[in-house]
Design goal:
Structural class of chain A: mainly beta
Number of strands of chain B: 10
Oligomer: heterodimer
Number of domains of chain B: 1
Order of helices and strands of chain A: EHEEEEEEEEEEE
Order of helices and strands of chain B: EHEEEEEEEEE
Structural class of chain B: mainly beta
Mean pLDDT of chain A: 96
Helix content of chain B: under 10%
Distance between the termini of chain B: 19 Å
Mean pLDDT of chain B: 95
Number of helices of chain A: 1
Shape of chain B: globular
Strand content of chain B: 35-45%
Number of strands of chain A: 12
Helix content of chain A: under 10%
Number of domains of chain A: 1
Radius of gyration of chain A: 14 Å
Strand content of chain A: 35-45%
Low-confidence stretches of chain B: none
Largest sheet of chain A: 5 strands, antiparallel
Largest interface: A-B, 28 and 26 residues
Largest sheet of chain B: 5 strands, antiparallel
Distance between the termini of chain A: 14 Å
């Protein structure tokens, strides 16, 4: 299950009520912390897989479906090649393609995770997030 | 007064605008209602009994004029003044996407703990507040 983070809540209000420019959204994976991140988490508080084919994936507007209070994005696949990533505990949504200077909008801890991703393995993520 | 709660139509609109399937609204509009029971989240503007006449009109809440801190948005105080007759008991305020009528989307409401009985010449001051969590 996913949840909004503090920076995400602030961004929602700024876009909705102030008309600030919508950010680009990027999906990433984290290998730490192992427990669900707190809402005040920042990018520097998350550890991502390093190398072996890992990169954040941009989520495009046309791939979102909004139904009632639920937004769902088409499934994205992270493929591991060249070495293992180890245990992946969840995903995060942010506004930066890389680095730690962006904002974390939401996180989703895998309820049936972690997924131990070996060389040649993959993680498929379908981002779902509610507004309530 | 406390903070307004999101309505179903408001939640959908937030996601549609955030993820790009709908353009941002130019303004929202603040109104008063007379429904004595707190409305469910799934109601629409048509389900609200709005004040009628005696100087009543929805107030425009301009885009960009909200103050946002953390997960709370606050708008400057708005005053509704009854002129020429009584409005009676006001039970809450609502935020919608249109200046008049029932065709707009109901974004949020706040139901007052106790109603305010507004008579001719008197007014009610509202500071719209809304949070997301």
């Amino acid at each position: 299950m996913s949840k909004w983070c503090d920076d995400g809540e602030n961004e929602v209000l700024n876009v909705f009520l102030k008309g600030t420019t919508r950010p680009s959204f990027y999906l990433g994976l984290y290998t730490a912390p192992s427990s669900e991140p707190a809402e005040d988490i920042t990018l520097s508080g998350l550890t991502e897989p390093s190398g072996n084919g890992y990169n954040r994936i941009q989520l495009l507007d046309n791939d979102w479906t909004v139904s009632a209070d639920l937004a769902t994005h088409t499934q994205k696949t992270f493929s591991c090649s060249g070495g293992a990533w180890g245990n992946v505990y969840g995903w995060f949504l942010c506004n930066a393609p890389s680095g730690t200077s962006g904002k974390v909008y939401a996180v989703g801890q895998f309820s049936d995770g972690p997924y131990n991703v070996p060389d040649g393995g993959a993680v498929k993520v379908t981002v779902k997030i509610t507004a309530a | 007064m406390s903070v307004a709660k999101w309505m179903d139509e408001g939640e959908t609109r937030v996601l549609q605008i955030l993820f790009g399937s709908l353009a941002v609204d130019g303004a929202y509009y603040l109104g008063l209602y007379k429904n004595s029971a707190e409305p469910d989240e799934n109601i629409t503007v048509a389900d609200l009994t709005e004040i009628s006449g005696y100087g009543y009109a929805r107030k425009s809440l301009a885009r960009g004029s909200w103050t946002i801190s953390g997960n709370q948005a606050t708008y400057a105080e708005q005053t509704f003044l009854a002129q020429g007759g009584d409005w009676g008991n006001i039970y809450g305020y609502f935020i919608t996407t249109t200046l008049t009528g029932t065709g707009g989307k109901l974004v949020a409401i706040e139901h007052f703990g106790t109603p305010y009985n507004i008579v001719d010449g008197k007014g009610i001051k509202i500071i719209p507040k809304i949070t997301i969590s």
